[in-house]
Structure formats: structure tokens, C-alpha cells
Automatic annotation (TrEMBL):
Listed Pfam families: Sigma54_AID (PF00309), Sigma54_CBD (PF04963), Sigma54_DBD (PF04552)
Family annotation (PROSITE patterns): SIGMA54_1 (PS00717), SIGMA54_2 (PS00718), SIGMA54_3 (PS50044)
GO biological process: DNA-templated transcription initiation
Sorted UniProt keywords: DNA-binding, DNA-directed RNA polymerase, Nucleotidyltransferase, Sigma factor, Transcription, Transcription regulation, Transferase
NCBIfam families the record matches: rpoN_sigma (TIGR02395)
Residue intervals of the RNA polymerase sigma factor 54 core-binding domain: 73-253
Domain of life per record: Bacteria
Family per similarity comment: Belongs to the sigma-54 factor family.
Name of the protein described by the UniProt record: RNA polymerase factor sigma-54
Gene3D superfamilies named among the record's database cross-references: Homeodomain-like (1.10.10.60), RNA polymerase sigma-54 factor, core-binding domain (1.10.10.1330)
Keyword DNA-binding appears in the UniProt entry: yes
One GO cellular component term: DNA-directed RNA polymerase complex
Domain RNA polymerase sigma factor 54 DNA-binding: 266-423
């Protein structure tokens, strides 16, 4: 055996903590960015915030999403569920560690009320578990759950009227329950079909998502991230971020940064984190401006005439125009809303493809989804059609060439169950 030593060079891409956080920051809505900035203030002693001078946010006048045609917003801005939870935390808990933990979880609740952990974990699994259960004592049941199963389970555990064995069904038989295998579940739990029916009726009363409470903040009371105005056929836009606090170095700690004292090393990392945050926020802002400029160029008809004039557009086309990677466009357009003269839309709604018809014309993806929603809404609930039969119906009745797989994709995007799950339940 011959032993030798040799030196080699390898080129590897290392995903640093700050790079992961910068990527996450791109996906934040303006409201989420505000929450993130305020959380960073708690963690970094060098960060001081200058509050905006404008006292109130301006609610949008209209809201349109993929799931609904139009939602009229309330005329006055109401306190949102997160603000209420923060107040309840301060009134209910006295331990600083519990308050800080609960604030972290509330900061990271998505629009469905689920806990969405940051890229870089701050708390351990058992600590988050404890915090979620503490939240159940002050918030709507299921808040802070990390999955559908946990959300249903929390509601079952903390409700006093849950039938016996309901928690076992959710914890151990949820997939079988979703597939309506009543007899199988009843046999395994040694209960009757009558008991199973009571469990089924109870679970129907649970909320799989708390979007009715949280999504109103994103839609009904949402301050849009971008505002587009059209005057004399001239389209302009502005970032609606006036309510974001401005970042500055805390004046009490500046002398420690510039001095040669032993404390300088302690503040070095905090200074690096502060500079990273400032730069990342600015980079996010510049990317939004670039993408909106490209969208106005490519979707002028949409901004002047609404969805009827939208053109097919892909993320890649915009990425190539502004010289960034497609994934950057994808992240920047996530969780963002744009207010237009025709309503407030998700920014992702401006990217759409077209399907061919038998006459050689084309129809937008948005129109097809609207037809699909209306058709399923009015179908015979005792005999709902499969995706293949719906595809056949689209071809014969509307002349739209669409595959079964595409119908399935659109249905899942709109959270519409499959035909077997749409069928009316009948217990024997």
C-alpha cells in the first residue's frame, strides 16, 4: 500500500445563516417585514427604531383573490387578531421567558393561524410545544399549530364537548378518516358506527385553518404592499411601506463600537447583524421595484382594463428582463398584494398561462379556474364528477382543451376536495 498526501481545490456553495435569512426576507409581505424588524429589535441591543409619523394604515377598498371574485373591505381598520393576542399575553402571563416565547410564536403565525418557524430556529422543539399549549389558554383554539393534524387535535383536547376517541381518530387515523373508512376505524377503536358518526359530526365543527380570523388581516384589512395608479393612461406605482419603522444604531451603544474596550468584541456580531438587516431590507425593496417595473411594462392591459385584458406571463420572462434568477422573482412575488384601480390582487395573480380552445382561440387560466369553481359549486353532491369527467365537460361544453391532470392541479390550488371527498356522507 502506498500512502501519499495531495492538495486539492473544490468549489462548494455554502448556505450561510445570513444568506438563508436574506432569502426568507424576500418572501415577507410588508406587514410580515414589520413584525420581523420588531423581533430583531428585541434580539439585537444595537437596533433602535424610529417610529413612522403617520398614525394609521390605509385599508384597501377592494380585494380579489384566486378563491373569490370580490370582497368588499370594512370601512374602518379594526384591531387584528395578532394585536389582540399580544395584549392577552401581557395581561395573562408574568414570566418574561413565557412572554418572549409567546411573542415569538405570534410573530411567526401565518394567515391561517399556523406557526411558521424561521429558517434559523430560535427555540427548541419542546419550548415551542409548550408555547403553543400556552396560547390555547388565551387565543382561538388551534392557534399556533404546525400542521392540520395538530390544529384539529388542539381544538379537540381543549374543547369539553369532544366525543370519546376523537383525539385518537385525529392522532392515529386521520388519513383513513379523510378517505371515509368508517368501518375500519370503528373496528380498530372497538366502537360502533353510531359512535363514529358522532365523531364525524364533531370534527365537522372544527376549523382546519383559522383563516377566517387571520386572513381578514391579509385581505379585508390588508394594507397592500404596492399601490398602482393610472392617470391619463400613465401607470405609476409606489411601495406602501410608510408604516415601517426606520432602523438606526442605538445611541447608548455607539461609544462601545468605536472604542477599544473589552466590550467591543461582544458588539461586533450585533453590528454585523444590524448591517445585514439594513442591507437586506434595501435589497428587498429594490427587487420589488424592478419586478413591478417589469410587470407594468408587460401587463399594461391588466392595470388599465382589469383581468379581462391580462396577458400570459411567466416568472422566467420577468427574471430574464430584470437580470435575476427565476427563484428570486418567485420569492419576491410571494405574500405580496398590489392595489390597482380594479381591486387588490395577489401579485402572483399577474402571472398566468393560457389554454387552447377547439376553435383555435385561447382562454386564460384565471377564466378556467372560475368556470371550475362554479361548476363544482353547482354539481350534484350525491354524484360529483371525477376530474376526467370535468375535463371532458370543459371540452364538450366550452371547447376548452384541458387534461385531467390540469383539472386536478387547479382544484388542489383552490383547496377543492376530490370527487370522493365532495360526495355527501351517508352512514348505514
Amino acid at each position: 500500500m502506498h500512502l501519499s498526501m495531495k492538495q486539492t481545490q473544490d468549489l462548494n456553495l455554502v448556505m450561510t445563516v445570513q444568506l438563508r435569512q436574506a432569502i426568507e426576507l424576500l418572501q415577507y409581505s410588508t406587514q410580515e417585514l414589520e413584525q420581523f424588524i420588531r423581533e430583531q429589535e428585541l434580539m439585537n441591543p444595537l437596533i433602535a427604531l424610529i417610529e413612522p409619523t403617520v398614525p394609521e394604515r390605509i385599508p384597501t377598498s377592494k380585494a380579489i383573490t384566486r378563491q373569490t371574485n370580490m370582497v368588499d373591505t370594512l370601512s374602518t381598520y379594526e384591531q387584528n387578531i395578532r394585536d389582540d393576542l399580544f395584549e392577552q399575553v401581557k395581561l395573562t402571563f408574568s414570566k418574561d421567558t413565557d412572554i418572549k416565547l409567546l411573542k415569538h410564536i405570534i410573530y411567526h403565525l401565518d394567515d391561517n393561524g399556523y406557526y411558521e418557524p424561521p429558517f434559523v430556529p430560535i427555540y427548541k422543539e419542546h419550548e415551542i410545544h409548550k408555547g403553543i399549549h400556552l396560547l390555547q389558554t388565551i387565543g382561538p383554539l388551534g392557534v399556533g399549530a404546525r400542521s392540520l393534524q395538530e390544529c384539529l387535535l388542539l381544538q379537540t383536547i381543549y374543547r369539553h364537548d369532544s366525543p370519546k376517541h376523537t383525539d385518537e381518530v385525529i392522532a392515529n387515523h386521520l388519513e383513513a378518516f379523510a378517505n371515509k373508512k368508517w368501518q375500519q376505524i370503528a373496528n380498530e377503536l372497538h366502537i360502533s358506527l353510531c359512535d363514529m358518526q358522532a365523531i364525524y359530526q364533531f370534527i365537522l365543527t372544527l376549523q382546519p385553518k383559522l383563516s377566517s380570523l387571520f386572513h381578514q388581516e391579509a385581505i379585508l384589512h390588508n394594507t397592500p404592499d404596492i399601490i398602482v395608479q393610472v392617470k391619463d393612461d400613465v401607470i405609476t406605482f409606489s411601495l406602501n411601506d410608510f408604516y415601517l419603522p426606520k432602523l438606526k444604531l442605538h445611541p447608548d451603544y455607539v461609544p462601545y463600537i468605536t472604542s477599544n474596550s473589552s466590550d467591543k468584541g461582544y458588539f461586533k456580531k450585533h453590528l454585523s447583524d444590524y448591517q445585514w438587516l439594513v442591507n437586506s431590507i434595501e435589497q428587498r425593496r429594490l427587487n420589488i421595484i424592478k419586478i413591478m417595473t417589469a410587470l407594468i411594462d408587460k401587463q399594461k392591459g391588466f392595470f388599465t382594463h382589469g383581468f379581462a385584458a391580462i396577458h400570459p406571463l411567466t416568472l422566467r420572462e420577468v427574471a430574464e428582463q430584470i437580470g435575476v434568477h427565476e427563484s428570486t422573482v418567485s420569492r419576491v412575488t410571494t405574500n405580496k398584494y398590489v392595489q390597482t384601480p380594479y381591486g387588490t390582487y395577489e401579485l402572483r395573480d399577474l402571472f398566468t398561462s393560457k389554454l387552447q380552445t377547439t376553435t383555435g382561440d385561447s382562454v386564460s387560466q384565471v377564466k378556467v379556474k372560475s368556470l371550475l369553481t362554479d361548476y363544482i359549486k353547482n354539481e350534484n353532491k350525491n354524484k360529483p364528477l371525477s376530474d376526467q369527467k370535468i375535463a371532458n365537460y370543459f371540452k364538450t361544453s366550452h371547447g376548452i382543451e384541458i387534461s385531467r391532470r390540469t383539472i386536478t392541479k387547479y382544484r388542489e390550488e383552490m383547496n377543492i376536495p376530490s370527487s370522493s371527498r365532495r360526495k355527501e356522507i351517508q352512514f348505514s
